[in-house]
TrEMBL record:
<dbReference type="GO" id="GO:0043138">
    <property type="term" value="F:3'-5' DNA helicase activity"/>
</dbReference>
<dbReference type="InterPro" id="IPR027417">
    <property type="entry name" value="P-loop_NTPase"/>
</dbReference>
<feature type="compositionally biased region" description="Polar residues">
    <location>
        <begin position="137"/>
        <end position="146"/>
    </location>
</feature>
<dbReference type="GO" id="GO:0005737">
    <property type="term" value="C:cytoplasm"/>
</dbReference>
<feature type="compositionally biased region" description="Pro residues">
    <location>
        <begin position="170"/>
        <end position="180"/>
    </location>
</feature>
<feature type="domain" description="Helicase C-terminal">
    <location>
        <begin position="2"/>
        <end position="42"/>
    </location>
</feature>
<dbReference type="InterPro" id="IPR001650">
    <property type="entry name" value="Helicase_C-like"/>
</dbReference>
<dbReference type="GO" id="GO:0009378">
    <property type="term" value="F:four-way junction helicase activity"/>
</dbReference>
<protein>
    <recommendedName>
        <fullName>DNA 3'-5' helicase</fullName>
        <ecNumber>5.6.2.4</ecNumber>
    </recommendedName>
</protein>
<keyword id="KW-0413">Isomerase</keyword>
<keyword id="KW-0238">DNA-binding</keyword>
<dbReference type="GO" id="GO:0000724">
    <property type="term" value="P:double-strand break repair via homologous recombination"/>
</dbReference>
<dbReference type="GO" id="GO:0005694">
    <property type="term" value="C:chromosome"/>
</dbReference>
<dbReference type="Pfam" id="PF00271">
    <property type="entry name" value="Helicase_C"/>
</dbReference>
<dbReference type="GO" id="GO:0003677">
    <property type="term" value="F:DNA binding"/>
</dbReference>
<feature type="region of interest" description="Disordered">
    <location>
        <begin position="219"/>
        <end position="255"/>
    </location>
</feature>
<comment type="similarity">
    <text>Belongs to the helicase family. RecQ subfamily.</text>
</comment>
Length: 441
């Protein structure tokens, strides 16, 4: 089947195994629609780009280029990054982008598996792009295999990469194709290759069959293949068999589908909002109290009651300032005075007790420094530090100030967490609340 770019976006055949895109243009969004025509039944499928070696982008920076994602298409076709990652990076963003090597693995692209059977097949097809007639002819002198028509002559610098840029074939000898015999059968699909009436297959058909056998060979019993990329699709079974087969390697399981990734993003957002509710509960009670008393001994002491605070003298303020100044927040993510999250793009992550704060000259946050001081003074206490390392360290020792800083500034938004400084504060407050249920009542 051959079709134009517009028609290619409307094909909903379920058994399309291969898509060949000739000289891709129009940007990644349109090409993703064409790519999506293959494998709609969940079985293994492949996409080839036939393109020149030159870049696809021509007017970089223009509005049309940006709107149609032409530069992103160029990254997918000509880039050295995983094709799957380059595509999902543009479509879904860095948090949801996946690679062929990410678990669960799928059919790899040519970057992730340059020696795969399909890649070798593509390279062989490039080296022998035309079907040549065999020595024998039928009784009428007509060749038994039709010679391919002269092909378009590509630029001298054409490249050849399967799934990224496949070199266009060299021109055929200047001779007109012989007419086909009226009784000759022309097969339009791959099923014709397996017809019992065919006594002999052509070299090109044999090459395709060999590649398909290598790709669809059943997995060896007993243990998995040493090569993680060499997954087999569903093996052929007799019609009478009713054995439940595993899903094909090209079909992502639930963790790779768009819906599941969207659910994970929603779950992460809800987790952060739940943390915001806890922060609001804790900060309302802690407002106006000494963070050093709270961090070192888990006590509530009003700052006005102890101006000359002995707990503040017990820690090095110079070291604390080094710790605090290492935090550099992106705009509208965290309050730079107190480390509480803000509602960037109206995501609702700012605690209610912090809403309405006007960042004007001379205006101080009512919670300024509390989380920074509480976490730092809590870390200085060995009994708390050991528990923190055990429960939240994830391999970090946190034995020095540099280790604490490197760990505290990290953030795992994809896991529904704030930065580790806020997470350590929540962990500390949560432990106090479990030990003293009325502490934050």
């Amino acid at each position: 089947m051959a079709c134009t770019t517009a028609f290619a976006q409307g094909i909903d055949r379920s058994n399309v195994r291969y898509v060949v895109i000739f000289r891709p243009a129009y940007g990644l969004l349109v090409n993703n629609q064409m790519i999506g025509r293959a494998g709609r039944d969940g079985k293994e499928s492949h996409v080839f780009f036939v393109t020149d070696a030159s870049k696809i982008t021509s007017f970089r920076g223009t509005k049309a280029v940006k709107a149609n994602c032409i530069e992103e298409l160029d990254d997918v076709v000509h880039g050295d990054e995983c094709r799957r990652y380059s595509t999902t990076l543009c479509m879904d963003g860095v948090d949801l982008a996946v690679r062929c090597t990410d678990k669960p693995r799928s059919v790899p692209c040519d970057v992730c598996a340059p020696d795969s059977p399909m890649q070798r097949f593509a390279m062989e097809a490039i080296d022998a792009p035309l079907v040549t007639p065999p020595e024998g002819s039928d009784s009428n002198g007509t060749p038994s295999v039709q010679t391919a028509p002269p092909a378009f002559t590509p630029p001298a610098s054409a490249s050849h990469r399967m799934n990224a840029a496949v070199r266009q074939p060299a021109p055929a000898p200047a001779s007109s194709p012989a007419p086909m015999h009226p009784t000759q059968t022309v097969f339009q699909d791959s099923d014709g290759m397996y017809d019992d009436s065919i006594s002999q297959i052509t070299p090109s058909q044999a090459m395709i069959l060999d590649a398909m056998e290598r790709i669809h060979r059943p997995c060896a019993s007993g243990s998995e293949s040493e090569d993680p990329f060499k997954f087999a699709s569903q093996p052929s079974v007799p019609a009478s068999s009713r054995v439940q087969l595993p899903p094909p390697s090209s079909l992502p399981n639930d963790s790779r589908t768009f819906a599941s990734r969207a659910n994970r993003a929603n779950d992460a957002a809800m987790s952060r909002l739940a943390r915001t509710a806890k922060l609001n509960k804790y900060m309302v009670v802690l407002k106006g109290h000494c963070p050093f008393h709270f961090g070192r001994s888990a006590r509530l002491v009003l700052e006005a009651d102890d101006v000359d605070c002995p707990d503040a003298k017990a820690v090095s303020m110079e070291e604390y300032l080094v710790f605090k100044r290492m935090f550099d927040f992106a705009p509208y993510t965290y309050c730079f005075q107190c480390c509480l999250p803000q509602s960037k793009n109206f995501n609702g992550e700012q605690p209610a007790c912090h809403v309405g704060l006007a960042y004007k000259k001379g205006t101080a946050c009512p919670f300024a420094g509390f989380i920074f001081k509480a976490v730092y003074s809590m870390w200085k206490e060995e009994k708390f530090r050991k528990l923190l390392v055990r429960d939240m360290g994830e391999g970090a020792k946190l034995s020095t100030l540099d280790e604490l800083i490197a760990w505290a500034v990290q953030e795992h938004a994809e896991r529904g967490r704030y930065n580790n400084c806020v997470e350590a504060f929540l962990w500390f407050c949560g432990n106090i609340e479990r030990a003293k249920p009325q502490f934050f009542a």
